[in-house]
Amino acid sequence: MLNGIHMTLMIGPAVPVPVSQDVLNALTSIVVTNTSDGPSGFHLTFTLNKQSLLETVFLLAGGASIPLVRVVVAVTVNGITQVLIDGVMTNHQISPGNATQSPTLTIIGEDLTRIMDYIDFSGLPYPAMPAEARVLLILAKYAMFGVIPLVIPSVLIDVPIPILQIPRQQGKDLGYVRQLAEDVGYVFYIEPGPTPGMSIAYWGPEIKTGVPQSALNTDMDAQTNVESLSFTYNSESAQLPIVLIQDPNSKVVIPIPIPDVTPLNPPLGAIPPIPKDIFVIDETAKYSPVRAALIGMAKASKSSDVVTGTGTLDVLRYGSVLKARRLVGVRGTGPAFDGLHYVRSVTHNIKRGEYKQSFTLGRNGLLSTVSSVPS
Questions:
Q1: How far apart are CA 316 and CA 225, in angstroms?
Q2: Number of CB atoms found within 10 A of residue 19's CB
Q3: Residue 350 vs residue 12, higher pLDDT
């Protein structure tokens, strides 16, 4: 598609395979969105002609003979392959052409969390199994799709005694796994890669540490590698969560303020705003103090980003693919916003001769906590 960039498209029932050259020639655009707080999605747009079999193939995909169509999109930039999406088709749209424009077929889909939301397994028992074991057993169903579980045990490992309690599933797999994560202040998502056809199902704490990605440079002459980048600071959005804990002896409810800083969520801004509002997490009164604190810290981290950055970049000029759920450095915006930021979402827009990304960044304060960022 572009010099230095190679795109791979794989489509198939359950096990995707590389598409033919005719399908690649009909492909006109790809839009993939990855976010830190929801499922990833994709749009593939194809140009149709009278001899094209694309329309028939994807229409049949909605029938019983092909229960689902799996789609994998990967790009190789400067020799490094990144899987942008591994998901399933959920819908399609056909736009009729006219005298000057051919008809188009748009394939719409979501990541592999979608297949966890098909069948209701309510009532399935999990005797003597803590939440971590239940999650592993649920994810084992999806090994045929290349899903590899990465489950981080919680400090609140609780093995229910079968003669007293047998946990039973409530609802579909996706909702139940997410509820188990929320109960201990964790997150759950499926990230594609590291190779096409494989995905990592992560159940654990949200991590905002690690090696930062190459810096986003603006207003730095020849070193500028973004097309646009702007920041907003909203100190009014800062909130202080308070968890309620009930003393088991006196039954007195004790309010405890929870900070938004943890070892896995360190401060990225040196000067956080003073919270002007509080919100009470009252459902924690029935939990232990440790469990209540973990839930409170998870909710605090989600509401702590008072700095929001938005921008666009050209992947060829940036030199790599910017990824969501990672740290990235920023340079050239001034002391208030330079430094490390958390990539909250990324949208990939790929067309013939063009690969651009739009992104959203988040940080919990002004001024950098580091003296330099990787270039």
A1: 9
A2: 17
A3: 350
CA distance 337 to 373: 13
DSSP helix/strand/coil, 232: strand
Question: HSE (CB half, 13 Å, CA atoms) of 207?
Answer: 11
pLDDT greater than 80 at residue 343: yes
Give the mean pLDDT of 328-342.
95
Q: 360 pairs with which residues across the strands?
A: 310, 345
Rounded mean pLDDT, 110-124: 94
CA-based diameter of the chain, in Å? Answer: 80
Concatenating the DSSP letter of every residue in 151-207 gives EPPPTT-----TTT---B--SBHHHHHHHHHHHTT-EEEEEE-SSTT-EEEEEE---
Question: With respect to CATH, is domain 119-204 assigned 3.30.420?
Answer: no
The number of residues making up the chain comes to 375
Structural fold of domain 5-116? Thrombin, subunit H (2.40.10)
The span from the CA of 233 to the CA of 211, in Å, is 25
Report which DSSP code applies to 280. E
Nearest CA to 321 among 126, 30, 101?
30
Structure-block tokens of residue 223: 């070193």
Residue 56 is predicted with a pLDDT of 56
As a whole number of angstroms, the distance between CA 216 and CA 315 comes to: 11
Which amino acid type is present at position 195?
Answer: T
Asked if 77 and 84 count as a contact pair (C-beta separation under 8 A), the reply is no
Domain ranges of the chain: 5-116, 119-204, 235-302
In our burial notation (b when 16+ CB lie closer than 10 A, e otherwise), range 22-53 reads: ebeebbbbbbbbbbbeebbbbbbbbbbeeebe
Distance (Å, whole) CA 148 – CA 134: 15
- For residue 195, pLDDT beyond 80: yes
What does the mean pLDDT of the chain come to?
A: 86
Write the CB contacts of 201 (distance below 8 Å, at least 6 apart in sequence): 139, 142, 147, 148, 149, 150, 188, 189, 190
